[in-house]
Amino acid sequence: TLLYKWIGMILSMLLVADITYAQTAMINVASRKAISLNGEWNVILDPTGIGEWRQIWLENKAKSKTDFVEYSFEGSPTLKVPGDFNSQMPELTYFEGVVWYKKEFSCTPVKNKRLFIHFGAVNYLATVYLNGKKIGSHEGGFTPFQFEITEGVRSGINALVVKVDNKRLQNGLPGLGYDWLNYGGITRDVNLIQTATTYIEDYSIQLIKGSRKEVKGWIKLNGVNREQTVKIQIPELGLAYSAKSDRMGLAKLHFTGAFKLWSLENPKRYRVSVESETDSINDEIGFRNVEVAGSRVLLNGKVVFLKGINIHEENPYKGARAFSKEDAILLLNQAKALCCNMVRLVHYPHNEHIINEAEKMGLMVWSELPVYQHIEFSDTAVVSKMDLMLKEMIRRDRNRCTVVIWSLSNETYDGTPNRTKALATLTQVCRQLDSTRLITHVTNSQSYNNNSFKVVDSLYKYADIISINEYIGWYMPWQGKPENVSWKMAFPGKPVFISEFGGEALFGNVSGAADEAASWREEYQQQIYINQLKMFNNIPNLCGVAPWLLFDYRSLGRMHPVYQKGYNRKGLLSEKGEKKLAWYTMEQYYKRK
Ligand code: GCB
């Protein structure tokens, strides 16, 4: 076992040390000098994975009339980027495998500038080639990454080839089983970004926990000229702060401001300019404080009940992965219509548009890692992947005040070897990286006997909020009156959040008579909600709830031929946006709260 452990450790160290592994992306791409590579990309479908052997990235072309090349981009179909491939070609509807993408771009390298290629996300494995040479790879379908191509880029036309593989992996994140459609492809924006030779790679500008005016943070420079004077300015507050970066390019920030806080009623953001001697960048930053005091969650010092809703990254009307500002607004408008003040973005980090729009609309965001159900925690490579993904997730959004909760796992099983140790370490790393937000792990390991819940999980010790998924009334029957359900918590002092509950119904499947309740009917789903809301009154320290979920969504595991047809039907809205009866029950509850 020890030998295997060592081999595993060495392999995962090699993975991290792999020089062709992608760099963690610079932040705030939206305000950089960029050329978008979005649009039509040529593709080659490679269901058997033979393209590796045929060296597709070399773009072989027929040299004579009798020569032939089977795997060629010449005359190949195209797919839209950003976008998943499953929804764009009927033959790819449920496809999980390799698709090769190619895009040409023209470039005039500029002296004393650096060039990066930045991917918002590629699901799941991306291997990237520039002009016939591999420049690197990235694993993980929901976080950004980049490669520097200052050296490799040519003057004139360049060819970028990306091998995208969305096959499920036993040691992937998520692993083999999950209840959503595995949309593959280059699912988020691709940009060429030009920077100064020393550029602002990352910065952290947020209030420290517990304070409403004190900011502690840093700016990180990347390049050869790392010792510089850096400046933060917030013109609206007349605030100008400067500091010196050290040999590593790190400048510490510490200042106070008379901020109007970002709140649900007034989601105020300030224009902030971040400058160094060689680079400058603008951002819109909100300032707020979120904390747990005893068993309560406080936003800016006031108790807040989290009126949540679960949302997958899917445009229901298109049956496609959501990626745009329009998609984000569509989803969030419905969350607002339900009177929510928080969205739980499941089960992986969503795109930056939805984070931004939520921030502008005054909706709090719960962001989650795809550490979902069956994860191979004893595989050291998995542990390294979790660590890296956590860093990628936090880095991208650490200045987005709307993100109030990092959720590090969903429904992992307490008895899985190494699970609690791995997730406890992950929690610790998360706190070190970001002490300004709350951390949770979602569990479903509670027992329900004699109409009584016993909530025990070794992870609760590490979480700020105890998050519980329970489906009483759907996956298991009520054992007594909902209003009489009793709750026993292993960690009694902490706030409790019901992160999932609900049941399935097909929109329009109504009996009209309440006593004719039957599965898949709207009344049946609504009754689950009525009962759940009664039960919530008895949950000690309840700090919020989130129904599962906003819209019906596509999932391979949901193939009931009449009622599901490839959709998980637990939505309060159908995939066409029609309101089911349970919507009204939930809306009323949130209005009252
Ligand atoms: C859960 C999972 C969620 C599923 C849901 C369901 O507990 O967290 O991803 O989709 O149940 O519908 O069963």
UniProtKB/TrEMBL annotation:
The chain crosses the membrane at residues 2-22. Residues 198-288 form the Glycoside hydrolase family 2 immunoglobulin-like beta-sandwich domain. The keyword Transmembrane helix applies. The keyword Cell membrane does not apply. Keywords: Glycosidase, Hydrolase, Membrane, Transmembrane, Transmembrane helix. Signal peptide: none annotated. GO terms for molecular function: beta-glucuronidase activity; carbohydrate binding. Residues 36-195 form the Glycosyl hydrolases family 2 sugar binding domain. One of its GO terms (biological process) is glucuronoside catabolic process. SUPFAM superfamilies: (Trans)glycosidases, beta-Galactosidase/glucuronidase domain, Galactose-binding domain-like. Its EC number is 3.2.1.31. Coiled coil: none annotated. Residues 290-527 form the Glycoside hydrolase family 2 catalytic domain. Belongs to the glycosyl hydrolase 2 family. This is Beta-glucuronidase. It comes from Pedobacter suwonensis.
